[in-house]
Description:
The chain is mainly beta.
Amino acid sequence: MSDYIARVFDPEAPPSHPLDSLTPGEIRTAATAVRAQASDGKDLLFSLMLLEEPPRGDDRLLESPPRERRIRVVTLNQSSRHTEEWTVVVPSGQVVGHEDLTAQGITAQPPIIVDEFMDVERIVKESPDWQAAVRRRGVEDFELIQVDPMSGGNFGFENEKGLRIIRAVSYLARNKEDNAYAHPIDGMVTYVDLTNMRVLAVVDDEVFPIPQEDSNFHDDNGISPRLDLKPLEIHQPEGPSFKVDGWEVSWQKWSFRVSMNAREGMVLHDIVYDDEGTKRSILSRAAFAEMVVPYGDPRPSHFWRSAFDVGEYGLGALANSLTLGCDCLGSIYYFDTYMCDGQGEPYTLERSICLHEEDFGVLWRGANWRYGGNWVRRTRRLVISFWATVGNYDYGFFWYFYQDGTIECEVKLTGIIQTAYLAPGDYSPYLGRVAPELAGQHHQHMFCVRLDPAVDGPLNSVVEVDAVPVPMGPENPHGNAIRKVTTVVERESQGRRDTNLGSARTWQIINEAQSNDFGSPVAFKLSPAQTAMMIADADSSVARRATFAKTAVWVTRYSPDERFPSGDYPNLSSGGDGLVSWMKQDRELHQQPIVVWHSFGTTHFARPEDWPVMPVERIGFMLKPFGFFRRNPALDVPTPESKDSCH
Ligand code: CO
């Protein structure tokens, strides 16, 4: 074991901290307890298993190791089709909560379970209507047809009420390795009713030819690799500068805990900066609480596409095992994480969280042009990340910590686009051509990150900051004046805030009880991602279900039950849950425990360069200290000492 690793998390041992990721033993105990308690335990599909984290400020957070923990389990009964919630205490296995939501008349569809993907493919391929529609497009052999199950959305169709709906689209693969997205079987979509395990309808809108050109990008695909790349190797002969103790990470003056859950993927807890010996808190928790990918093609075979990848699929459940030298470069520490499959069995996601540090250019520099002299420091950043593959897309979620107190969050988007047929020479206002007979539907990827701020303590406020011009006049005779105008977000009725590029709008998370040396409240500045918000009509189904994506910044009062901006059960939801409903309480936000939800995304007009696999697109935001420190906190970073140093 290297000296930077104090302790590797032992999956066979009990957890050592209340916020540690679930252990395989805890997953097994919870599933066994639920099965034993259920009237017909063998019929249960396990959709979701989440640690019930003790709320902020709870004494249980101080108990290391924890005597007991609580796990929230969501199951789907395969015969009754009921959705049930269970709360299990581990290690005792005592079931302390059970609600049959369906029996109570609550509409709640659990996230899609991987086991159901296989069911969908089988049900679809057995359907005579689907077979006939595929034959109309010239395909007789169904063996190699790839059936993609996609979350169904909710369009108020009478015959879908209360049913567990999946919509399936089909692609033709030439062989098992072939990129089937090159050959969409377009103009049709299959509605599958998973409640009754049957095809509800095959919507056969228009018969298109299947694009024939192959588009493969895997190794040995006939593309000769460029030959002029010389080796570039990252050596850290003394190992990395970070330390890992179980799920706790420290690096330079930063420390935090990390965990992984099936729904949000990686979560960061208790982010602290050591300011000359004082441990100062910044965030109590940070994670991706929801995301949605609304597609903008109104045709019958396309309009419904809108996946909620956190709430309907689960970013942790779909996380990848990473490969050294490819996904991550340098001295890497990997965390293995543990998930629950549909049968309640634990499985290991090996190397699913990647931790490393990297050189990131100049930290600061100052040159004296009069008398000579040049003072430069290079910066490093600590990178902690994971990748999730959701259907055709790959998403990388990256958090960076910098030596000057900056935190950056970045999403990397790559993978294969959804495809549609577009005849050569044709044009569609809703499609972007990528190949001779192939196009991608216009779409957006909208993310919502949940930040639980704790800037020098648990009670914070949010201040909106605008740069405002002053009219020319006696106070501003030359018209150059810039005013900084600040607005305190006092209540939840003011908690929905839009970006404004024209006024360089940012927000500051402040603590008015803690002043800096100059008498101002200590603050961290949120520099939002400069992106369009959700384009879909405010009255559309997807906008009602993902209202979070209509506005960049939302501030709410902290409440342990308010975790997901589109509600606990976004799958097939009709909308109105989550943020919009909680904020009707109009709670006070001034010097309170608050939550800041930042929505941002990318608007994707597919281009030829996105085909056949899309180069990484990046989008994210920054949190920067603003009067949190008394001066540049990175003056003590030493001069570079490498062999080919600039000195
Ligand atoms: Co895209």
